[in-house]
Design brief:
heterodimer, A: mainly beta, 7-stranded mixed sheet, 4-stranded antiparallel sheet, 0% helix, B: mainly beta, 6-stranded mixed sheet
Chain lengths: 113, 111
Amino acid sequence: DTTVKQNPRYKLARVGKPVNLICSQTMNHDTMYWYQKKPNQAPKLLLFYYDKILNREADTFEKFQSSRPNNSFCSLYIGSAGLEYSAMYLCASGLGNNYAEQFFGPGTRLTVL
Amino acid sequence: KTQVEQSPQSLVVRQGENCVLQCNYSVTPDNHLRWFKQDTGKGLVSLTVLVHENDKTSNGRYSATLDKDAKHSTLHITATLLDDTATYICVVGDSNYQLIWGSGTKLIIKP
């Protein structure tokens, strides 16, 4: 199975409430990425896990958390959603030594009301 | 300064015709370049990845070239179908896990 799965596909959240998005892959990839994509903008890398090491982008590290309980799963956690978090969230995975090959999931569309 | 520039910004093509999308970049070092297709409201689908100088790849009706000296790539779509209507995004990866994204070319296929 060479697919990256994301759950849920659509998520509605209230302002101020937490949001947890899930990503999984069974390709034994050591690296998993989370991107935020807004309409008419390029996807923005939020963070990535290389094995158990979390790397977060400097300008978003306070807004997003992540966990990777095992090689196959990676979550993206928003502690208190704001309207500006409404976006498509894309998960990708790949091998750290060949990061040219990234496999993307279908995305989770988050709408914050 | 935009590091990955795509042209044209939008393109309308009649079904069955061929089209060419361009990507120019200034990313250094340029480890690889990837073309994605994004259907409206959906996730990204990787069409092809180019790694080496003068790489040429082919994936069905999609073919791509990379000229690292010129820092330029093209994506060719032959015999376009209505389902080819989408945004095509060029992404350049450097050697530090950084992906630099173009803003995309919106392609519309008309019957």
